[in-house]
Amino acid sequence: MSEVVGIVLAAGQGTRxxxxxxxxxxxxxxxxxxxxxxxxxxxxxxxxxxAVVGHAREEVTSLLSDLYGERVVTAHQADQRGTxxxxxxxxxxxxxxxxxxxxxxxxxxxxxxxxxxxLIERGADADLALITATIDDPHGYGRILRDEQGRAIAIxxxxxxxxxxxxxxxxxxxxxxxxxxxxREAMASLKDDNDxxxxxxxxxxxxxxxxxxxxxVKGEMTTLRGVNDRAELAIVDQVMRRRIxxxxxxxxxGIRDLDDVWIDAQVVIxxxxxxxxGVHLRGHCQIGxxxxxxxxxVLTDMxxxxxxHVLPYTVATESSIGDRAKVGPFTHLxxxxxxxxxxxIGNFVETKKTRLGPGSKASHLSYLGDGEVGAGVNIGxxxxxxxxxxxxxxxTTLEDGVFIxxxxxxxxxxxxxxxxxxxxxxxxxxxxxxxxLALSRTKQENKLGYAARLRARLEAMKKSKAKK
Length: 468
Ligand code: UD1
Ligand code: CA
Prior knowledge:
By secondary structure, the chain is an alpha/beta fold. The chain folds into two domains: about 5-225, Spore Coat Polysaccharide Biosynthesis Protein SpsA, Chain A; about 250-440, 3 Solenoid (UDP N-Acetylglucosamine Acyltransferase, domain 1), CATH 2.160.10. The termini are far apart.
């Protein structure tokens, strides 16, 4: 089979999105629309791609070069004069190329690679191969016009349709495999004699039909629909999320409700992990085998090791959770938290840039910021790492086996030596040597009978006020 190169049209602004962000940079399941399309093209075997860029050209170009390097080059379309004009711009990067060109729109993120592979296979010997699909509501799509023999002979844009043509519900989803030499000829023939005064790529069908060399392949519209406004973006996002959830479930991930998990496209989950309802896994999360991510957790760019358990409503970002560790419920792990194996971080604990050695615990109501915590450390309820003096962040170091009593403030920079104890309610401002006890409370005094006398006095005051 000859080489196939992709052209992805991504120069439009997407006015109907009513957004400062160009349309192709909006996301479904954490991936930009344009990346969804380019990924599908590569998966279907395209050797390289030309992306046609215009609106927010720098942003789109830098995203593409970050993701694909030299496999995607860009062509600049300064004025958006239609999809045909955009394709001409794309072809300017393919001088002398003689193989096939797969032309796609950058706003159709659901395109399955399998559909593209089929198009590439079936269109191998044609000037033009395209997908068509039948839908209940064809509004807005280009209609496929056929002759008496049933051959596809033209695509008519919605706004250029006669009333009869508007009734046609076979539409153009916008996926084409075109012979490069033929495409050059066809591009030269385009005219802007339509309602928008643009050059339409869709007119290549009429040009190819005259030469009689067209192959059309039936597609399924639910997976081919384009995004023109935010409502369509939401619909497409839902389809994509469901598809991702099903892929994981078939690969052995326990997902109780396939429609109520939000797993971004790049997330990696090992078999036998479980994902509860309402969970969001964003960015590049990696979830190990046997790990449980319970109801309502929101994890972004997280590494969760095998058999860890993240209890409900935990929010965690750019951090790692070790083997068999327990986190949550209601825990907030901020960036650069590294929890070792068998650690425990309980409810209403917030961490940031803190490392916890094996088996260490902070079970309730604490703030651990800029901490270096060894193994087997117990951090009592209500402990605060006072890491910030208004100018700098300072480190709190707790060596192995340290015990921090509840309601203690550790004023950093500070080191508490191996095996030391900090008594409850202590404000620690100086280093504590290994195996020492740090204690900063005032001495307790018990005034016998005082409470009863106080109550009597207060009661009497209340009564005398009520009389007045
Ligand atoms: C297009 C098709 C229509 C099809 C529909 C499928 C044409 C003329 N019409 O209509 O038959 O049913 O898609 O979704 O092709 N773009 C550029 N430069 C331009 C114009 C557009 O790069 O000058 C890009 C856009 O960024 C977008 C894509 O091409 O990603 C499609 O453009 P859009 O305006 O959305 O076309 P539709 O009106 O949806
Ligand atoms: Ca569109």
